[in-house]
Amino acid sequence: MLVSIIRRSLFTASQSNGVQEGYSMNSNSKELVITKLEQGLPAITPAFGAALAEACAVCLTDQDYIQGVELKVKGDFTAVFQLYWQLAFIVKK
Q: Rounded distance, CA 11 to CA 64, Å?
């Protein structure tokens, strides 16, 4: 369920202020700044957006992704996004 919420949140953010045109190896890509979820969206409070952004940051950091990694989206629409997030500090056991 969390993945579904994040997916919908990222889609909504990509349609509002969370996406900026950016440069990448793929000239059609856009920047998706996950941290901007903290600003909230029509159906997401700033507090919940911050929690989603932190969950994304933890997962991306834990899996050793680097800033600007490309996310290819295919489905209702097709796009390429470069992901950016606030670094999360993770204590690994």
A: 23
Domain boundaries, the chain: 2-84
Which of helix, strand or coil describes residue 71?
strand
What burial class does residue 93 get, using C-beta atoms within 10 Å of its C-beta: 0-12 exposed, 13-18 middle, 19+ buried? exposed
68 — alpha (psi -120 to 50), left (phi > 0) or beta?
A: left
Residue 84's alpha-carbon distances to 1, 12, 59, 93, in angstroms, are 23, 16, 13, 26
Q: How many residues does the chain have?
A: 93
- Give me Rg for the CA atoms of the chain: 13
In order along its 93 residues, the chain shows pLDDT tens digits of 444 445 555 554 444 444 444 444 555 679 999 999 999 999 999 999 999 999 999 999 889 999 999 999 999 999 999 999 988 666 666
